[in-house]
Amino acid sequence: METKNPQPATGHRTRRGNPARTARRALPAAAAAAALGLAATACGGGGGGGDDGALTVWIMEGTNPDATEYFEAVGERFEEEHGMPVEVEFVPWADAHDRFTKGMAGGTLPDVAELGTTFTPEFAEVGALVELTDRVGDTGAYNPALVEAGTYDGQVYGMPWYAGIRSIIYRTDVFEELDLEVPENWDELRETAKTIAEEGEDDMTAFPVPGAAPYSVMPFIWGAGGGIAEQDGGEWTGTLSSDESVEGLEFYTDLALEDGVSSTGAATWKETDVQDNFVDGKVAMAISGSWTPAAIAEADPELAENLGAFPIPGPDGGYSPSFMGGSHLGMFAGGNEDAAWSYIELLTGDEFAQRWTEESTYFPGRQDQIEALAESDDPLVAPFAVQALEAGASAPVSPQWGQVEGKQVIPEMTQSILNGDATAEEAAKKADEEIDGTLNQES
Amino acid sequence: MTAGRPAPAAPPPPPNRRRRMSLRARRRALPWALLAPGLLVIGGLLLYPLGRVLWLSVQDYGLRELFQGGTNFVGAANYTDLLSDSYLWRTALPNTVLFAVVAVGATVVFGTLVALLLAALRPLARTIVISCIMVAWAMPAVSGTYVWVWIFDVDRGIVRQGLEAVGALGPEGFNWFADRLAFYAIVTLNIVHHGFPFVAVTVLAGLLTVPKELYEAAVIDGAGAWQRFWNVTVPTLRPVFAVVTILSTIWDFKVFAQVFLMPGGDGANPAMLNFGVWSYQQGIVQTAYGTGAAIAVLLTVMLLAVTLVYLRALFREEEIR
């Protein structure tokens, strides 16, 4: 599962009806009855379609701080144009996969839903999603990594909506104090981290190497010229144990094991732990998502003033590819397809896409919209946009990839290297076996 | 009605008789009628899901079956796959059973010690101590686990700092969440801390019912403290110990949150999974519902077996007496 939401889900969920309808239900008793009615539709809709013909939409919680207001505006516009009310339900990321599978079991799927990019092929394979190839049209206008992730068996099932990418954020005050420059290749990255570890504050972790954060390892595997898995004639082969991949893995884990720029505890850290420690002021440099600067600014405005970012460097200059996470918009089978597509068009159209980008600090799915951001003056936007344009990559596009993530194959591999239980090569071989077994199984 | 008046010596009229019979029938039906709501709830909430899980466990059931409906019967394949997997025997089973044995033992022993302390206290002091241990009991498992993870934080936790201060740990530290034994030692601390108040309070309730005369007689016979405990308290409280042991066993076998929420406990480090987390990993996370259900059934069977052995031992004791 793509875990882009930096905050753990709180379980808080809101369900809004159309404001006009809500206004009519003035009496408290009627409101209570309405709430019950809404709750009832949540468990009995049946393949899309809410009560009184409303369009049902599931959106992930936490991407946009003002999501409620945003979707009210979208809903009003949609009702004006199509005469149909919209019911948006917010789903926490941590629950998302469960909610979709429960919806499949109970026939309560919405008409339109935001899908984590790794969900799309998985749900497309079982026939839950409506194919969008003709509706989307020319895919060249969209971010290629998002298009690739949304394509299953040659057909498009996920409309690219927005993207997030990981680069490196760093503390400008620490860099200034130690007279450091932004590193432009792997050697410089290592030397910079070592300088911070040796000369910086004692309890400052220079560059954590988290064991349970798969998207932090991938840039080094890709950067060295390796990969995760390749498909040839329908057969998948794990390529983590290729020479290039192992070289990248070794460089990355040696940062912790040989160069001592990480910490012992980081071997079991997730991305959220990296961010928590960064906010605590205990981390100087870290692989972080394009959405984290905003979250850090919210948690500690003072710290955010000393924040910089740079794309993940390549081994000898250039950039290392980074995982392009994000969301698609998908339509579930059996729903109101025409209305659902109109709603998707409204969300991804210029006006609302731009507002979404501004409010959420995620990147839009359209290539021309990202290009504008790469020119930005904001030092915390441009580096991420450059990374997204120049060096974005996607995980193997297979319906079973979600299972590889669920099994945590890559965290298991990274942790066993960091804990000294296996060499990079041994751990990568074991991971390849699991990837081969999982990606090639009939679901 | 003439029932209350002195009646002529005549056989009771037939309607009366019929009524008495229906009364008897009604009396016989009454317990069932009273039980019915409970049975319905248990049937609906417990037996039905249990049956579903059993049925799922003999199918190869994935996302496709979930979405499109239909069944995919594979017989005992899920079970044979699991039972022939060395992961079950080397990792999941020891993580579940050995952990449960240690945790139950520690919980019952510690809980009993606290109960003995409580029994020896004056009412005011007893109230204060009970209130304190209730806090440990009332703490939700999730918060409790996060507190333990924080205490054992590898880089800056208080345990690390303490050990480093006394020189037991080098500056490079030690990642206890990556070591199976240390990982489960922390889980055990967490479980014992959360579980001992129940044992303490239950055993205390038992202790207060033991007649003082028994202890007085034992003292006159020259019994020491240990002999009084072993020969008077333990035999009298045997049923109480049986209950707290069975309940603790059931709880400790199916520990979930306390493992899942630890670093590496959610599947990133497969060496740390117990049956509960493993079942969730397979069934819910990887949508192999059949395999997940089969693991859950195996866990249930283990629990039933353990409970049965306990109950038989308990009732045999009763018969001998």
Descriptive account of the structure:
- With 443 residues, chain A is an alpha+beta fold.
- In chain A, β5 and β6 (155-156) form a beta hairpin.
- Chain A has helices at residues 19-24, 28-44, 67-82, 93-106, 119-125, 133-136, 144-149, 172-177, 186-199, 214-223, 243-257, 271-279, 292-299, 301-304, 337-348, 350-360, 367-374, 382-390, 401-407, 409-418, 424-439; strands spanning 15-16, 55-61, 86-92, 112-116, 151-152, 155-156, 159-171, 229-232, 235-238, 285-289, 307-310, 322-331, 363-364, 392-393.
- Chain A is globular.
- Chain A starts with 14 loop residues before the first strand and ends with a helix.
- In chain A, strands 1, 2, 3, 4, 7, 10, 11, 12, 13 and 14 form a ten-stranded mixed β-sheet that branches. Chain A has a two-stranded antiparallel ribbon with strand order 5-6. A two-stranded antiparallel sheet of chain A has the order 8-9.
- Chain B is mainly alpha-helical.
- Chain B has helices at 14-57, 63-68, 77-83, 86-120, 123-138, 141-151, 158-165, 180-207, 212-220, 225-236, 238-253, 257-260, 275-285, 289-320.
- In chain B, α11 runs antiparallel to α14.
